[in-house]
Write a structure and sequence with these properties.
This protein is an alpha+beta fold. The chain has one domain: START domain (Alpha-D-Glucose-1,6-Bisphosphate, Chain A, domain 4, 2-Layer Sandwich). The protein is 31% helix and 26% strand. It is built from five helices and seven strands. A seven-stranded mixed sheet has the order 1-2-7-6-5-4-3. A hairpin with a 5-residue loop joins strand 6 and strand 7.
Length: 178
């Protein structure tokens, strides 16, 4: 029914392409896709993705307790490790420098609210452009939750992740490095 809220800024070809998180996927209730063009290098975009270790970069007044997400690169946040916290409620599951980061919701979130597996994938294109693609797999602890909350979650995620991706675009294009 509301398929447009599950796919924003992505083509059917991008949706069907492999994501590094695919081997980690189990049976999920739904999958949302997001994507954006960024005119910057994969290295710069990856540095900004690593900043999610300290802030979510969406609507700070909603999901960052009113604190402004840093507008400069904080040195050292790109030294990623498996199981490090990211955006307060996620843990890093896998990554490849300048290519992708896969994160998984914490055990509390997964057990009581919604299990989420997100993969942020950077694809280099011609003309100094990259595509930042996100695949988000969601699984509800109880089937009645999927029935009641899947569409509102997809809509809320669209609003929040659109803002996040637009922020990463703005910051990465502002701080272009080659």
């Amino acid at each position: 029914m509301f398929q447009f809220i599950k796919k924003w800024g992505v083509s059917e070809e991008e949706i069907s392409s492999p994501f590094p998180s695919d081997p980690l996927e189990e049976t999920y209730d739904d999958i949302y896709y997001r994507g954006i063009d960024i005119y910057s290098s994969p290295e710069n975009i990856f540095l900004w993705l690593c900043q999610m270790r300290v802030a979510p970069y969406s609507y700070d007044w909603i999901d960052n307790l009113g604190r402004k997400s840093p507008q400069i690169i904080i040195e050292g946040l790109d030294r990623l490790k498996i199981d490090q916290k990211m955006m307060f409620i996620f843990n890093i599951k896998s990554f490849q420098k300048n290519s992708y980061i896969t994160i998984h919701s914490s055990s509390f979130m997964s057990k009581y609210i919604c299990e989420s597996l997100l993969c942020y994938k950077i694809e280099k294109k011609q003309g100094g452009k990259c595509r930042l693609l996100v695949k988000m797999c969601v699984k509800f602890p109880f089937k009645w939750q999927a029935y009641l909350f899947n569409t509102p979650l997809a809509f809320g995620d669209l609003i929040m992740m659109r803002k996040q991706l637009l922020n990463f675009k703005r910051l990465s294009e502002r701080d272009k490095i080659s």
